[in-house]
## 1
Amino acid sequence: MNLDTLLQRPDVWRGGQISAAVKTVSSGFDELDALLAGGWPQGALTELIMPHQGIGGLRLLMPALAQLSRDDRWICWVAPPHIPYAPALVSAGIDLSRVLLVHPRARQDGLWALEQSLRSGNCGAVLAWPTLEDSVILRRLQLAAEAGNTLGFLFRSQRHVRRPSPAALRLQLEPGTGGGLSVSILKRRAGRAAGAVHLDTSLQHGSLALHSRTPTAAGHTQPQWQ
Amino acid sequence: MPVAAARALAHDLVVHVVDRKAVQEALCGLADWAFQFSSWISLYPPYALLLEVQGSFTLFGGQAALLKNLRTGLAALGYKTRLAGAPTPLAAFSLARCGSEQMIEAQHQLAAVLAPLPISALDWEQTLLDRLDGMGVRRLGDALRLPRDGLARRLGQQSLLYLDRMLGRCPHPQDLYQSAPEFRRHLQLVSEVEQAQALLFVLQRLILELCGWLQGQGGGVQSFTVRLLHRERRHTDLCIGMHRESRDAGQFTTLLRERLERLDLQQPVSEIELCAGQAVKLDARSLDLFEKADAQEQIDLLDRLRARLGDKAVQGLSAIAEHRPEYAWSYSEPGVSRKDSRDQHRPLWLLSVPRQLETRGGCPHWHGRLKLQASRERIESGWWDGRDIARDYFIATNPSGSCYWIYRELAGERRWYLQGVFE
């Protein structure tokens, strides 16, 4: 195999070269989109590393999920740690009929369901909370997300931060001041790790809509009877 | 040759008794399967099947293409077959019986093609064949050359009619095979099977028969049942359900494989049965769906997940207009959701069971002291169904910046609970 053919491989990326070919889905936050060169990478795994829960990691995805739920694909939640609360999802503009919850009993089933969902091409986004450390499995998941052209979001705890990961994008989330969220890039395919942005995803009702610029903000978050 | 005589010649002879009922069932199964190739099928028991194929050539793109399809399908079912075709049923039957795999198209060729075949090609009783043999007749050509009245006198009018029909000199009405309105196929395993996955190989054959039958019926099914029979009349039923009607053998096999992989067989299996209810016409909606590749695959993911994890493990979500937070949502069938929600500030995570919080100095704690935001929401509801609640809800933050939805009981011990996480 010569170098040219090697470079043709989709799973080979070159440092320092911003690839225009990567399709993205807007995160709904201007600052974050600028940091990510467009938004969440499509057909790839994104790892969101959080020191603990309750800092708003899920809220960060809501504008993009709302956007994706308007397509004919599932927003698939594999083994969520709690019940995704339907009223809050509706408020965030998500079409509930595209939500698919998968509750596998065994860990092995969870990984299987995760890979199937990523690979099938039927899911716009797949959310999971895997505790695994095995980078071989993560690599499989990354390839599955590529095959299914799916946005795969893995929520990971802080202890995973030092482990190498084949995910296309790794973000460190920290609680910011005033209820906001601080996001910094640990790894991405195109370009080097970059500085942090502070996002106001604060809890004041409607502030998420105010600060995001997806079409969600305009009409969808407001129920019709209001 | 009697079995005793055969045993005398070969002492290590293994004798298998033919199960006529099983053979008949297999032939019916094959006929059901063959409905995808022709709607005119007759049984020629014990081992032959007659298909009127002239009318299907156009559909399959010619005789060669049809035969190729037929051969591939039969091989997949695991049968050894001989295919022969002719303008009359009995001529085709005789050719196939002798293993002469020819396709004769013109009626005038029949006599010449059939002439070299041995007289055993005729489906006649042995006594009649012996009588022919006694007359020095060895080949069909010899029999056809005999004077008609002499032949009728010696072998009976029926034999003459048989030959006339074979050559197409007089019509030969057929008893058409009617398939049962429901699909049910039973198979005795050669030996007991202890590994669930090993059953898939055998079941695959039944699935192919099912799909052939469905194609012949012009329909699909939404579910089918595999019954695994054990000793002492015990059995295990596996019901495979789908989102929409289908007749896709690949899909059926995948779903069944997922199910078998999860199956913990308590006892070995000696027989298997595959049943499917009435075929449902694949309506315009389903057909439209088949054309939309995305939608088809989507069904596959849902069915796959459910086949392996169980129906209850894969759910959709609904929002319900209800004051009590724990009743303001419910699971629902994926793709079908109620979205009756009040536009209130709610956490993205709800705990399945509220968790009682420790208090220190009157303040609730959860990974540190919780700081309450000023706004309070009072929820009192549900007196009519006995599950009434009276609570004050707060948004609270702990020292590490995590944000929670907590409440305090308004009555009784006025305890604090954690019910949601503002993730």
## 2
Amino acid sequence: MATFKRAVGIDLGTTNSSIAMMSPMGDELVLWEDRFKRKTFPSVLGWDPDKRAFIHGWEAWNRRGLDPQPLTSIKRKMGNGQTVSLAGQDMTPADVSAEIVKAMTGLAATTFSKVVEDHETIIDAAVITVPAYFDALQIEETRRAGELAGIEVLGLLQEPTAAAMYHAWKHGIEDGIFLVYDLGGGTFDVSVIRSLHGEYQVLGIDGDNFLGGDDFDKRLAEHFRLRLIEQGYSLDLDVSKSEDAARFFLLTKVAQEVKESLSASEVQYVARRDIFDDCAGNPVTLEFEYSRTEFEELVGDLVNQSIACCHRAIELAMSRADVSASQIEHVLMVGGSTRVPLVRQAVQDAFCAGQTLATQLRLDEPDTCVALGAALRASTLAALEITQDSTTVALSSSTYTHEDSVDVIGTVLNVEGVRTVALINQGGDVHAIVRAQDDGSFEFENVRLPETGTYRFTLDFSDSAGEPLGSVPFFVHSGAPEASRPTGSALSNPSVLAKDIGLEVVRETRSERHVLLARGSSLPAEGEFTFYTADHSGAVILRLYQSRFPIRSIHLTLAEGTPTGTPVRLKIQVDESMAMVAEGEIAGQRFWAQIEPPPPRELKDWAEIEALLDDCDRASSELWGDELSRFREATEHLIAGIRETVRTDPDKLQALVVRLEDVVSDYRNRDTHLTPAWHRFETLLDAVKRIVWRGDGKRQLGLNTEEWRARLGAIENAGRSAYESSDQPAWSQVFNQVQATWETLKQDEFMFAAPTDPVAYVQMLATSLRAVIDNFRSSFHAFAISPNPETAALQHGELHRLEVMLKEKVEGPLALLDLENTPPDRLKPELDRLFETANHLRRQFDRLPTLGLVSR
Amino acid sequence: MKNENPFDDLEIDPRLSGRELTKRIRKIIEKAPADERAEIQANWEKLTLREDQRIHHALLAHPRPESASAREVSTLRTNVPLPTSKLQNTAVSLTRADVIVWDEAAVSVQHLIPRYDQGK
Amino acid sequence: MSRMKWWSPAHQALLNALDAQDVVPGLFLLLTGGALQANEKDTRRLRDWPEALHDSASWPILAAALTSGTRDHEVWNQAQAQGFTDRAAHHNALLLLELSDRLTQGRRFDESLRCVRWATTNWAQLYESGYLAALTKDLDPQLPEDATAEIVSGLLCPALEERRQRVIEELRKSSADMDAAAITHSQDWFDVWRSFTPAAQRAAARIRQTVAAYDQSVSQLVAQQMTKAVSDLDLTTAQDLEIEAPLRQTWRQIEALRFPAPAMAEMIGTLISTLWSLRRVGRDTTPAFNTLVDLGILLAPHLGRTIKSGESIGQNSRLGDLYVFRAERERGEARREYLVLALDFCPGHRNASMLMSYLHLHDVQVGMQDLAKTIRPASIKATLKAVHGHLKLAEAAFPLNEDLAGHTERFQKACLKNKIDPRSFDEK
């Protein structure tokens, strides 16, 4: 009996998982199903105290609410460094997932073996899917789960891409553009994917790691809780306590059932007696009617958030590939939570009502298409291995074609001395014969398959003397000409960067985020950049961002006297699993750093969260117009989410708090003002105009009035455009030009001006200098030190130095001057010197916010 | 130029349509060693992500019709059919081009050739 | 060319390959004056070129050149004059642009400029004959007109953009590492594109824009770096070398860039304000002060040229200031020369006028001293007339000159003593 070994596809979902495989004939994708024909495997790990063993899937699912509580939704905990506990055992999320994978692959091997009679199937390699928005740590933990389960992980495929690939394969769509809306239990992903000449490209991507069906459940559960309180139950729950967590969990279970029922009916009569005891020990009974309309009102904003993500993904597709919404042909709904009627309606309204070429949603196998797509990908990444007796062949060519011929390409893995390979057809005749290469590889080109159907061939291997060394059977399927089945090849690179990677740089005196690798770039991605040091702080801080959130700071100390403008070379590499590495060199010093999402920030208690919400209010009061609406848009749903999840979902709460913190600090650091200010430009320009348009016939600088009009018009336009586009260098240039023009023209004007009173002038200088010092002092006190520890350290040092210098070099000498009795012509140069020094210190103070940053 | 043109890099005809060049490059990547695949994939993407980019690169690539194939000279030689004995019955005038192509083979059929034109 | 009946595509492919092996290396040497050799990859890439050249009117010239092995670039000029088919011009245009880059890398600047000039000739042909538009239509018949025009007209911009990046990188290097010759060469390279004006309007416009963007960005970078470096200085305590360094570097950059007007305007502005600052803090006797003035004087003729041509406006007073600073170092005629220059660019320049006025008064003084030594009446009259002239000039230059009154009084006394009416010197 021959054995087939094919890599499988595994969808490790938050609530449910599934597993699929391409058949050895290459004509169908086979999904695992249990004896009840259920095609999904609950992602639940439990413990049976009687058998003293782990239980998985449906078995574990049925123990929910019983002690010990089984572990559910483990996907939400992947990559955040926490451990969980089951029956007294501490496990990482990878361990839990590994158990689930092991159970599934064990069951699947048996099922898949039945695909081809008398042939056994072995599973030891897989492509595992991950949400497109997963970070490196989360992806790594997923990979580890596979490896712990004894599986070779060939790749981690992003879920929306898997769904699109399956769909294109199933319907033979060699060319088409898909919008994939993937709403699972815990995560939401949206991608714009194009199949092109049988290959796949990800054009746009967006999503939310904390948006899924679970949120609907929790919100509904919270609603039930409040209703129960109205009915007099004592249910002021603190979900960080395990008893209250269990209570809330049971409410969530009811909520989930109600939600699912409302998908099929408009109203549900909810009746659950004695679900649990409330905080006062009274048994709780739920009994009321609940309508779909009420549910939709409750969760409407969550659905709207997902639509906003879709629009962002489409915008990205436009900028990357010039593809607009109107070119989208298929809108795919993936994930169990897309069964909710509100979700379907919202997507239908937003994308199937004339905005795209799609007129209706595709709801094809929403729970399993991801696993099937992964199986498809697995079949192209790894060869099909066939073993008979002790001969093993790896067939890398596709065993399916819709043309009338096929290439057969493979390698003999474990037999030495193979020289000749013969392709024998079903009738026993030699169809073709080729020479094997030294490494055992062979290629039959254009093997003709005159009719549609499945063909059985045998590969016969012999040595240089013609003696037989072994043989293996294999199948090829020839489909009808119109039945193309695009699988994609190594050209399809479905992994893309989901979030921009940026670097904080200084430009003029402001900091800005410069994108190094743009989201949507194919992985692996890399870029090499050169920046330049921008100050004398003696240190460089490379602060890297993922989207708007900082992920890693690399702090380098420089040798004393390193001049500004010293090049800093930086190379960033991201591989398919989103593992990021930064390396580079500055002034001979090399650095290398693995970049991971930062460890979870310290969990905040409610007092700190309240303080953050106040901060947010204050920040918004400083904004107006467009900026204010953008700020509101970015924060409103976060604030609402925070108030909600404090009672329902501690993990999500912390995630939202982190996001809000980062948005607020982002807006704080905005400073969009150019220097000098616009009104100074206008003043100078007016002064110039007054002189040149006096109408006294004099040709100033050789130009007549008309020519001046044209010149000044051009300067004014240039100034306006530079100012409006916040282009500081261009603005400086135009301003300097006007200033120089005025200085030239005024030479005439002030030729006959009387000299000013020197004593008064000097007194004024002294007064101004005192004002400058005071101003400076209050700037010191008002200065907000950066929250980043490395920058803070640099800033503290610099502030102290400036304070000392101000005292020693300006204030001190000023105090020693005898202003009353020193003649003005001796005082003036002294005061001028002190002014110059004060200005110099001021310039250094202005650099404090961006200390350590590099410039482009 | 620091950035090589993808058509020149892959040595394929810049006039190929998107579909044809995908087919061609698919064959290239399947035969390529693992460490070269990322670059081939990147080149394919440069030629297919945006249509205007494909045209831009095609305009900046050296024309490369089939007759200017990039295959090794030795491979090209083996593709050239050798002269047959039927030559005897045909009056021909050979040009330098023919002689270049035939190389060693030309020596063996020289006795069949009535005239031999050196120029072009 | 006669072909046998059994000539197959396989024959043609092999022939082209062998031809390329013959022709390509020779043409490389011709085009680059022997500086570059074709490698195997080049030869493979250009397998279609010889066939395209055979079809061109210029082939006999090139064939002869290949036989003789000459590297005289005049041959290519002659071939260009005879003409190339569009397909050959396409190969030429691409190759020559690439060779220009490779020659720049190898610091063969003259040869590089020659190649880029030839490249523009071939590109102009491709634009004007409609070859590029037709090829684009072939590549995608569905493409709308506007999109075609956009792609074709912007085709060469990336190549210019890349060159610009390299110049920017070079300008950012420290003084010791900056390759001035390479920068000047790139400036000349861009000048070739400045005169690229094919009949294809849109393409010409795009190139013009790209060159203008280059001009603007290099000037801006020079200005930014200078401003930053100067603002880093504490002029009350900085050493001479520290004060001189930024402006010296800026001068080197401006010189390498062949004196772009915007950068010169920025430099003179910063130079003058630094000089004034040094004076204010009482450091105008430090050597750096004079060094800066001298740098300004080096800049002056080039800046002056752009002021006169109208390219720079408003820089007159700064140039005036500079000449005054320079004049201060001299006495007598030498001083006058600089003051004349200052007033030429900036008539009514306050300080120049003032100094000029004092110079005239000095002449008055000298004249009055001469008077004391003269006894002949004719000489006395002549001397007094001259003094009168100088007084008038002094007054005209700077009416508020406090010393005027004294000198005028003495003159009038002398006139009285010699019984000459001063009003007789006033010309009617």
## 3
Amino acid sequence: MKEILFDFFGYIVFFYSIALMASYVIMMYLASRGIRNLKDASLREYDDQLLNESSYSPGVSIVAPAYNEEKTIINNVRSLLDQDYPTFEVVIVNDGSTDATLDELINNFALEEVSYDYVEKVHTRPFRRLFKSRLREYSRLTVVDKENGGTKADAVNAGLNVASYPYFINTDVDCILAQDAIRQCIKPVLKYKNVIAVSGAMTMSNGCKLKNGRLESHRAPWGLVPLFQTLEYLRSFFVGKMAWSAINGMPNVSGGYGLFDLNIMIAAGGYSADSFAEDMDMLFNAVRYCCDFNLPYRVVQIPETCCWTEGPSNLRILYRQRNRWGRGLIQTFVRHRNIVFHRHFRQLGVITTPYLFIFEFLAPVIEVSGFITFIYLALTGGVNWLGALIIFIGLYSFSTTLAVVTMMYDYISGSTFDKKRDYIRLFGAALLEPFFYHPFITLFSLIGYGKFILNTRSNWGKMTRRGFGNETNKIETNDNQYADARQQN
Amino acid sequence: MKAGNGQYLSTQDAAVETRETHLSVSAASGPTSAGAVSPQARKKSAYDESGDRRMGHNMKIKKRTVLIVIGIVVLVCIVAGRILSPSQADDAAGYVMPGNVTRDFSGTDVWKYYLYFYENKFQGYPWVVKISYSIFVVALIFCLCTGIYMLRFFYRQERNKSIQREFAEKYEDKVEQIVAGPSEISTAQIAEMIDLKGRKLNDTELHVWILQIIHIAMRHKGYTMQVNIQRLIVYIGAERYMLRTLANGKSGSKIHVVQAIRLLHLPMPESIMARLINDRNLALRYAARLYHALASHDEPYMFLNADYLNSDFVRWDYLEFDNLLNECKAQGKDMPSFMPIIYSVKSNNVQALLIEMVGKYGSDEECRALFDFFDSDDELIKRAAYRAMGLHRFLPAEKVMMAHFPTEHEVVRRTILHAISRIHSGQAEGFLKKVYGMTASYHTRRTILKALRGYSDLGMQYFYELQAKAAPQEMPIFWHVEDPIINREI
């Protein structure tokens, strides 16, 4: 009986793996088609001229919440203001910072409090004041001061209430955007129909140098943990999300960078302040809104790296991040469980959420249980080691191939990195990932599920940022801390 | 940001105006417009299924793709079947003693050997092992192929970079002098300056050179010498390259060339472009028709007809259409008449666009004919008509719009207010003051106050009168409108 059970479990794991690999093959194919369709359809210079000169170019509001960012806020805001696009504004939401964030902004940008008729389209914690600059060169900048809402979602919602243009970009204030980030994201809005959100690729800024608010060099991180994450991000954006975009089944537009239709997001209720994965929750709400009111919609992923963000540099911080993501994933499934397998929600209900449930949500559970079973069999002499080795080599070679394809897609899309040897380092990371990174991610995700199920209190914690420090030097450690304690129900 | 009448608006109001300008076209790709149109009122566009023409290839799954996928699946099944089936060597009846049979060694025997090796590598092992081994072999081959493809890509990129570097080092300054120089330069002088030393640039080099010339021309936009650019293009052989591409190239390359021609304002033989005007590829067809409108002097707009406008128009096409008409106007061409087409286009979004075009470029008589659209059931069309009056600054429309104001929805009311502000007849203060009390929407009230304050001294007086009578909860609106920083009055 025991043998039958073990055999049965073994076959489940094996078929699960084969199905996962087959899905990745399909994703790689769909991603390649998506990249081919989106790249070089017309001359970039022609597109840029048209966007610059036409009065029909839509305006874009960049909404970035800030909490206790006094050390880096000025550089970051300058970087946001440096966007190469004719009609945009930058809305910084000071979410009740307890340090000198607001003072730094006021002093550096000649801000003055203005009388503003604040209309609360999405409910937030109380609004206090609004600042604009007296200087014409900073006329695009708006700073909203409000009471701390405890979450990024609340701050972003306040930004939505103030945003003037029909589209907004949701980003973190410490993210560095490519100078043409708005341009790249607005093109699908104009060239496709019914686009409600556009996702640009993100990558780690841990290995980059910043000067005058702009990235001077784009390099892969030197640390192992951020290097693994870089590979993971590339795979997620250039294979996973490109494939979902090709079938209009995107599950998520990252909260670090994404362009959205303001009216749709407000109509869908804005961001949920009590969600661990507010970006995914937001998109689900927006799609739900469109499906409920029979509106056509499209969510697009573009194969361009638009945003650089600082990733966790050690396992401790990575643990907190992945813990939260795990909780966010399970929370999203619980909240939106009626979407799964429901035709009414189109591709999201019929394809995306079932896939995510089986291959994202259940993956850590199956992996850990498979690993435990393997250990047991190994200790009891139930393993054919040559067979096990061949199976492992098969899976390992597939994951390496996936990494190679990912790097190829990134390279042909315009290359995130300046130096080709960064791809060699990434390849090295791909070889080591199954041994040194993936097990931790699996474990952290499982712990996140467990905490959600056990309803354990959790803080967002402190993301220790190294920042860019002295502009001409490599990364220096500073004491900039981002703390965002939240209360759990 | 300036309004059409030259007055600065606050960023907020400019944004509102921009948004409301775009709202006539936002429904083409945006599911809702400013939340004013109830979602139920919108119907799914007939063009939703037509594919994403402007981004390149059609994303629909083609029959050929399905057949290829079926072929791959069949091949995998055959290979898997051979792997999983018992080896023929196990069949005693097929056993051959080595040394008993000889034959000549042929080339295919190598492949047969490897296939045998592959099929029998893990005989006696479970099929999961065999499949894993197959995955390993396929992954290895795929990695090799990917590596070769990437190397090819690296090579092309490095080659292009090397051409760019050479251009930047040896030719960029001279090309800049030619393109942005103060006076005409003859072909002989260009040849002397560039001095290719008899070298003929190949297609790759020409492609890079054309892009670099475009960059230089864009940097000096408004100050370029068109004649010099044309002579330069001919001298380096780029004209022949472009003609060759237009005649024989892929659709994507043709589109790039047509766009490059437009950016550099190069003349091209009509016979070449005529072939592209009715090309199968929709994007290329559009690009060629837009070029024809710019280049032709006899009948520039003959292809911008109902057929063109009834096809799959997206917002990008609105930008191109608007840009085209701007360029035609800058060239001194007469503007086309859109009135005959307005009634024949099927899409209400395109109809709204054409109504706005009438406002921008049409005559007074045509604007008067737009009054009929004030009673349209479609809010998009209605707003476009009101907006057109503001764009045209059509004075006779003011009283008509004022008469319609009380019966309109708030979003439409704001459009009327913007139009009245732009018309600026000097007689609207009383109306603005009167309608302030007619609306419960603070957004509309803010628009009214903004219009009053910027209208005239009498308007300012009425503003203060309304402020004096306003309830405390309304004061933020007045303060907002008065704020000098928001209004960029400092």
